[in-house]
Design brief:
By secondary structure, this protein is α/β, with parallel strands linked by helices. A five-stranded parallel β-sheet has the order 4-3-2-1-5. Strand 3, helix 2 and strand 4 form a beta-alpha-beta unit. The longest helix has 10 residues. The N and C termini lie far apart (28 Å). The model has no long low-confidence stretch (mean pLDDT 84).
Length: 90
């Protein structure tokens, strides 16, 4: 049986990782099963996350972006949502 894939959509920066619902960086199983998309104010502060991290941003936010996150479009976000078994909005 294939592992269930979870997409996390983060709207606000994480202020306390101990109280966050995001998987911790230590959860090695989440590397292949979890993805994170940063939305809105969350693009300002990137949390530690075991899987791939993407950023949905306007062109003005992208121009000043220097992090390792891949910038995605709204159409790509919709595709991500359909490709994952579960979507959690935080």
């Amino acid at each position: 049986m294939a592992a269930r894939r979870t997409l996390y959509l983060l709207r606000q920066p994480v202020t306390d990782m101990t109280r966050s619902l995001l998987p911790s960086a230590d959860e090695t199983g989440a590397v292949r099963t979890a993805s994170l998309v940063l939305l809105e104010q969350a693009v300002e502060s990137v949390p530690v996350f075991p899987g791939p991290i993407y950023m949905l941003a306007s062109e003005s936010e992208v121009s000043g972006h220097a992090g390792p996150q891949q910038v995605i479009s709204y159409q790509e976000l919709v595709t991500f949502i359909t490709e994952h078994d579960t979507t959690i909005v935080l």
